[in-house]
Amino acid sequence: MIATEILVLIITVLVFGYYFSTKKPKNFPPGPRPWPLFGNLFQLKQNQLRHEQFDALGKKYGDIVGLYFGSKAMVILNNPKHIKEAFAEHVFSGRDISNLIKDRNLGGNRGVLLCDGPAWQEQRRFALKSLRDFGFGKKSMEAIIMEEVNELIAGFKSQHGTPVTTQNRFNIAVLNGLWAIMTGERYSHDDPRLNHLIRGLTATIAKRPLSSVLADLFPIVYHMRKTFPSLFTITGGVFQKETYKLIGETIKSHQETVQEDSPRDFLDVYLNEVKKTKDPQSSFHGEDGILSLRVTMLDLFVAGAETTSTTLSWAFLILALHPEIQEKVHEEIKKVVGLSRHVSLTDRPDLPYLEATDMEVLRYSSLVSTGQLKVVPVEGEVKPTLAPRTLSSIVLMPTEHKLVILDRQVA
């Protein structure tokens, strides 16, 4: 009799535990019922593209779908209208600073890519202004870019008549344009150290281990990865360590030669800013300013080495698959520019077909399958169509006309 009562009690506790652990907030969008503890994490297939699974969920549950990753609620927007509505809200501007990101950011809230709040605003404003002062995004960069183009062309010519791969081929060329403004240096496209780092970056971006996802959701997995790293696949750790070593060497050489009255590049300007900053609350202050510089340089290294080079790879693929388009582009360039010189920015108004092709490559290509996490504390400002008012939100950037919003209960 007592055994029966204990069994009934256990079953009752399990039933109520399951109900309350998988109960969704009021007004939460429709979606599959989550599992206890893990949510819908293991209901998504690891060997299938995430956006394809979101498409399937959208067809079943509608344009706005609610999921859970662990205890974090996620809202997927499958409609461009809702995506535009979300980006019109200022509240969707924060970042998710997880334990893994803190480790990557040298233990703090630093940099311009995975940073949040006043530190992000301060670093981003300074970086944009300083880089532009040295020509970033301006016509004056054309000479730097053409130097990289010439080396790329020479490399392709040396392999004429043989199969070539574009993966990792453009990264150093693109990175050099930004790195020259940042540090006054450039690297040969065959530089073994840089190529090793680029391969590490590509591997890190290409596949995120499941243990990394779980470490973001469950602190115990994070601490296990830290305590027993040999038991887990940690692809980004080696890349970050070796890239930080390169960055540290570059900063040290500039610290030894920097002149306050005649900065040579972005790095000199940043070091001067750290030197003159007296406010301990500033992200440029003292040793924290140097750490912020290291993280900012890592962020710019990643941004400079990956997105544009991936776009160029897409362009090569699309033109190879559509030789008739390639021929029309070539004919327009030959007619307008000729074959005796390179295309220049001044030729842009006279090359409408080339520009249209570039725009089509950008429209067709997909650079990031799941974007950067964003966190926003909500105090009744988010529209009900996007998220319940009692939630704070984490946003992944859109891909394939999608926006993913992760939500957490506000304490």
How would you sum up this structure, described in words?
- The protein has 411 residues and is an alpha+beta fold.
- The chain has three domains: 1-30 and 50-94 and 374-411, no CATH class; 99-307, Cytochrome p450; 322-372, no CATH class.
- It contains 15 helices and five strands.
- The chain has helices at residues 2-21, 50-61, 80-87, 99-104, 117-133, 142-157, 171-183, 192-206, 210-217, 219-227, 235-257, 266-276, 286-321, 323-336, 352-364, and strands at residues 64-69, 72-77, 375-376, 391-396, 403-409.
- Helix 7 packs antiparallel against helix 13 (286-321) and helix 11 packs across helix 13 (286-321).
- The chain starts with a helix and ends with a strand.
- The model is unreliable at 378-403 and 406-411 (pLDDT under 50).
- Its main location: endoplasmic reticulum.
